[in-house]
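Long-time lurker. I teach an intro course on protein structure, and each term I like to show students one example going from raw sequence to a predicted 3D structure in token notation. This year I'd like something fresh instead of my usual example. Would anyone be willing to generate the tokens for the chain below so I can use it in lecture? Attribution to the forum is fine with me.
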Amino acid sequence: MQLRRLLAAWIVAQVLFVVVGAIHHKRKGGISYFDWKIQYANFTRLCHNKTLVSVNGQFPGPTAYVREGDTVIVNVTNLVSYNVTIHWHGVRQLLSAWADGPAYVTQCPLQTGRSYVHKFRIIGQRGTLFWHAHFSWLRATVYGAFIILPKRHVVYPFIQPSHEVPIVLGEWWNANTEDIISQALATGAGYQISDALTINGQPGILYNCSQEETFKYNVRKGKRYLLRVINAALNFQLYFGVANHTLTVVESDAEYTKQFKTDVIKLAPGESMNVVLTTDQPIGQYYMAASIFSPAPVNLVPFPQTPATAILSYHGANLSTIVSPNSPELLPEFPAFNDSTFYVNFSRSLKSRGSTSGYYYMDVPMHVDEDLLYTVGYAHQPCLPGEACPIGFHLATSINNITFKSPTVSLLQAYYYNISGVYDPDFPGIPEFQYNYTGVAPANEISVYATKVKVLAYGAVVQIVFQDTSSTFFESHPIHLHGQNFYVVGLGFGTYNSTSDPANFNLRDPPSKNTIAVPSGGWAAVRFRAVNPGIAFTFFQPRPLFTFCKSFKVHLRTCFHSNCNNLQNFIPNLFQFMFNMIHIADFVFKICPF
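-- Reply from a regular --
Happy to contribute to a lecture. Here you go:
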């Protein structure tokens, strides 16, 4: 009887999830319209009741289904006390950078009681992406899947799955995440790590008070299922696998790939991957699980030790034989938490389909106009008199030893209205101080605190080599590009050698990505064409010992109504003024239209 009640409750929850999502989503004539309210909602995890920031009262937020070619309109209303923005992670935003969402980059934050309408088209994309808040740490709870279906009558370039499901990986804190980040910014030291990992918002059976709510996916034997896996975790790179099952990778970051089989996939924060699972095992119940990949020293960068779990339940399985939390052998077998060799080999297995014409056309640049080297790592900022400084300095992130200083008006606004003094156009293309970046770190690890941009010619082919450094310690840094993808042409360990390493670049079928993690103690080389005129912001994801993506010294400010409101309600002639934001680390591109 108890089992029937649990099953009935689970079915009701799934139905309500679909119905609530439908209420706030309409699609007609190639237009997908969403009405989203940023509001408080109460949730219970780990025996702990919590009020958190949500979209439409859902955690994770609603899954947005659109179709390639759609015009997407999202009306966002802020009903909480925090400022907020929504970013469409991986959407190319051609002719629509005003809708991209990063705070103080393409727009000012959305104030309490105000609304903002995002409008953009889905051009030349199909696959799995996600959306999330892009202000402070609100992304910890404000996120959801963004699924782009192919055009009608266009089939997948792999065997059609029977069904598909989003698998959204995340983190859970019992405490208020805004309090956590505020404390970290105030002290410049480490912050409280998350209390649990989650799959579709649930920690899973291995955590306290979580067994009854563990996400369960019902399947039938002998079918193929498409799992749309998204790493929406705030800080951690994650492994994902299904016990006793092989996964076939078919897509990464909404770009089809050559198929390859693996037992485990690895995703950086913001990265997505579609995998096909065939239900070819004996009828039963199997763990789906997510666990940490973190090559940094564990004493400096602690992480949740318990994997998040969900259950893959075959039709006909004995439901009374619930997977036991005391049976770790039933979990997928993951690599070691710091296995960087697995990560690099896995990343090298990702290859684009490589078509030279037609629907899956690829254009890998063979020559380079701008060859940039950007060191990524940590820096030390001096403590000011009277500041709380428990470790003797403030930790910060930097690229080429420059830590991004957040402006008080959006960069796109400054560019459009020609507001001087907001940024400087002199970001260096190579580190000003050059050394063996994976050798002994310089004694002086203080960074320059500034808002700088790099000027690129329209149409230029840009190559960026992101180089990890030994400053503080080695780390694998996730890199994300707003507004357009890049090709990952090379990965390696040690200090990049511009003479010998390019000979090993993959220029035949490199994966097209919007997110890549720089190997710990190594480098990653990417190429793209600067074909979106305007301004592009770049950022890398720091690790959980540290804080906010930009630096510890970010000041979160509210724009004056006279500055922001007209901008938020005004869409310029984008054929004359087209802006595209790229978000890779701590610097800004300015792509000149002429």
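Some talking points for your students: The first strand starts at residue 25 and ends at 28. The longest helix spans residues 2-23.
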